[in-house]
Every structure is written in structure tokens, then in C-alpha cells.
Amino acid sequence: MRTQIAIIGAGPAGLLLSHLLHLQGIESVVLESRSRADIESTIRAGVLEQGTMDILTEAGVGERMRSEGALHRGIELAFDGARHRIDLAELTGKAITVYAQHEVIKDLVAARLAAQGTLLFEVSEVALHGVETSQPSVTFSHNGEECRLEADFIIGCDGYHGVSRPAMPEQHLRKNFQRIYPFGWFGILVESAPSSDELIYAQHERGFALVSTRSPTVQRLYFQCDPGDHTDKWSDDRIWAELHARLENHDGWKLKEGRIFQKNIIGMRSFVSTPMQAGRLFLAGDAAHIVPPTGAKGMNLAVSDVRLLARGLEQFYRQGSEELLNGYSEAALKRIWRAEYFSWTMTRLLHTFADATPFEREMQRAELENIVSSRALATSLAENYVGAF
Ligand code: FAD
Ligand code: DHB
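# flavin-adenine dinucleotide complex -> structure
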């Protein structure tokens, strides 16, 4: 089998790249290890920056996002029993949309299939070959057959645990940067009406809590937990008691309860692997970098990586120039490091660190007070949150 671009992984990065390339008349094949049903139902991110919404709209896959997603013009920071609104729209002129990642995936899969794109699900034993030559290839198993896909380029969009990053040749002065946090997020999906019109990021001595939403009837809530904890140790009553304690407030606002129908725990890390190119192999999205979820940046970064790559590949095929492709890693990393900084800052600001000294805890509260009482600091947070850079 031969194509122009071999894409490994059908997450937001791989699917969107394949679709953007198709719109430029560039052919690709996407190889995905999981089933279609699985990728279309895995619960992950929810917040889309304005720039992400714009790309999805321009690519013709934004219709459901616009009609079913919820546009949010602000977020709230809660601490010491009070809630403080950060008016994203007023401070930056931009907003965010809450629309689940698996819905973005459904829209992209539908668009790829409608355009007769080749998407192979449930592939296994994926291996990359000749990435430093001009004829790289990927071997894999599909439906019990051994296959080889030859391409001009291979794009690794296969997430943090994929095979593409380990296939980057060592001699390219590889550097990995990492920080693992001593906590995770316990996430639940709940059948209920929204408790709040906007997302609430709450700092509390018992730990961070986040009130988000999915639809008028389904809500998404998170709270800081031990990364080694297990969902079966958390009864529904225990979860609600913890959330009420962390979201307690003096203004009469109340969290709405409902039937909890999904529970999961995610670990948290900051991670960047550089460079993002070696010969004809490029990495995009979580394959190259991870942010802790507090800033809601992961999926948005994956989208901005593939937008850069799509432009580079378009230039290569239209003009025969590799200029943009060779500048990809540097250009992508500029945005990535800023998002890493913001995600780390939000994580530090809002979580409880078991080893923090009383002095450090006061510094954390003072920083929150500063943000909610200074237009300049609130604007900085808002700009980062909406991705206005
Ligand atoms: P992935 O979505 O991980 O896709 C990679 C794909 O590659 C997967 O489908 C995988 O099955 C496939 N794959 C892996 N290995 C192979 C292989 N060997 N061969 C073939 N295929 C393979 N981000 C935000 O922007 N906003 C948020 O609000 C947000 N909240 C989050 C909340 C949670 C609880 C979590 C866990 C994440 C959150 N994120 C958020 C992060 C976001 O989900 C990720 O950054 C995003 O999924 C990255 O997309 P990707 O396409 O790079 O990788
Ligand atoms: C959601 C996830 C995030 O990481 C975040 O910061 C806000 C919302 C969500 O899944 O709804």
C-alpha cells in the first residue's frame, strides 16, 4: 500500500491532520490501534479554545460543535468560600466552547469516511522504518494480515504511549523534559442539570475541584485525588461529600447531585520531547508533549500542532519547499512551552501539595487574591486560558 502521508493514531491530532490534508488534495492513511466504537466513546477533554473552534469550522467539521457545544464567556475561580468571575470575553474578546473530545472525534471520523478517506481501525504491531530516508514505511497487522504502508512522510499522532516517539532516532540530540505531579484527577459524569453557567475551578485545603459540563443533562466534575487511588474505593456518597466540602461557599450556591454513571482517575504530568522532527518523521499532539489538565490545553495544542504541519506539507507538495516543515519543531515548541507554563501555573495555583509549608500555602492564597483583584493579572490568566497567543 502506498500513500503520501502515513498518520499513526486517530485522536484529534491524527484525524484533523488527515482531514486538513484532504482539503488540500493531499492523500493520507490513518492507522489506529483501537476500534471506532472505542475512540468515539472515550471520555477525555471538554474545552475548545476559540482558535480550535475556528479551525474545526474552517475545515467544515464545526456544525455540531456550534449547535450542541456551549459557548462560555467566563470562568470562576473559587477559594475561601467565595467565587470570583474571570470575564474571558471582556478581558480578551474571546470565549471558549465546552464540547466533548469524543464528539469532535465522531465529527472527524464521519468527515473522513464521507470523503472516502482511509482509516484503518484495530491495527496492531505497528512499526516504523526508514524514517531518515525519503521512503519511510510502516508495517502493521490488520484483520490478520501483515501489511506495509509506504509514504513520503510519517506523522506520529499516537499519544503519549504510542510507538512513534520511541522510533525517533537517538542521534537527533533528543531531550525529554518531565514533571510528574503527586496527585491525579478523579473524574465523574453525572446525570443532572448544570450546577453553574460557567466552569468553576476551586482551590480548597482538602484539594482542587472542578465543575464542568457536557450538556443540559450531563455534567462533568473532577476532584484532586491520590494518583494511586481506585474508583471502587469511592462510593457515590463519599464522592458527593468530598465535592460538597471542597465547593462549600458563603453565597448560597449549591452543587446539584445526580446519578453518577462514569468514574475514572487520571495521573498528571508535564512532559515535552524535543525535537518534534527527525528526517521524515514528525510528532504531533500528546505523542510529543503532555500538560496537566488544569489549563485545558492538551487537545488545543494537538490541534495547533497539526495546523502547522498541514501548512508545511501543503508547501512541500505545492512549492517543493521544506522550509515550513523544517521550522515545524521550533514553531510548535514556542506555543507548547507557553501552554506548559500556563498549565503548570494553574496546577500549582489550585492544587493542594501535601508537602507545602504553611508559608507556601499562604503564598498560594495571596496569588489567587492578586489574580481576582488585579485586572492585569486576570487578563493574563484569561489570555492564556482562551489561547490568545
Ligand atoms: P490521543 O487523543 O491520545 O490519540 C492518540 C491515538 O493514537 C489514540 O486513539 C490511540 O489509540 C492511538 N494509538 C496509540 N498507540 C498507537 C499505535 N501504536 N498504533 C496506532 N494507533 C495508536 N485537553 C484540552 O485541550 N482541553 C481539556 O479540557 C482537556 N481535558 C482533559 C481531561 C482529561 C481527563 C484528560 C485525560 C485529558 C484532557 N485533555 C484536555 C487532554 C486531551 O485529551 C489530549 O491532549 C488529546 O487527546 C491529545 O490528542 P492526540 O490526538 O495528540 O492524542
Ligand atoms: C474539562 C477538562 C479540563 O481539563 C478543564 O480544565 C476544564 C474542563 C472538561 O473535561 O470538561
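# post-check
The pocket of 3,4-dihydroxybenzoic acid (ligand 2) is lined by residues 45-47, 199, 210, 212, 220, 293-294, 296 (CB under 6 Å).
The chain has twelve helices and 20 strands.
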